[in-house]
């Protein structure tokens, strides 16, 4: 079952009926028409007791002896079905900040992760009657979805293509939002956005993983430097041969060695001037 609109009329009409009924009842009492006067006063009280005020971005769910009769979403003063009960529910956009969860990524490394979920109620019937407490439901399902998504990716990735929690935060957040929407639709909740607010290695492996990150970064940088150095050496030899300077294999090897050492070294090279010959 889904949310439907409840029967209602302008609440100020209910106030007018109360004033008319109560006034006529008092008038009849003064004229000793006791039964008729009491009936009119009771009818007026019934009218005024079934007036409900609905605030902006708020809904009032109407129940009549355990039967759902609909929801009033429009703000204002409304007269509803007599003897019915109403339950107010907020339609405002809200945030849920998860606690820091300790989970294992796809490589088995323990990490700490947290997220914020922005949501609002879009179906008041499902929010009130399909789950026990929709706010508690959002909390538990958000943490469950976060654990599931975090376990599908590595914390970081240096040596291969693919998503990682640290390097692809937007993609991970989008997947988290989709999974949350699938889980929370049963509670009549719409997920507007979700974002990771905390991501770190657990304290017991943080130092070791930092060293690993540094080593991987150094290795990646060295590979880039070597690739560039080889290209520069090839360009230098090709330029010399284009100018008509022919080098034998031994001189080429010596030149390549010197250029690679000068380019790849992480310190400034100290040149050695050779005034003799290689032979």
UniProtKB/TrEMBL annotation:
Domain Band: 49-213
UniProt xrefs under InterPro entries: Band_7 (IPR001107), Band_7/SPFH_dom_sf (IPR036013)
Pfam families assigned to the protein according to its UniProt record, in alphabetical order: Band_7
Transmembrane segments: 7-27, 33-54
SMART domains hit by this protein: PHB (SM00244)
Entry superkingdom: Bacteria
Keyword annotations: Membrane, Transmembrane, Transmembrane helix
Protein name from the UniProt record: Band 7 domain-containing protein
Originating organism: Paenibacillus ferrarius
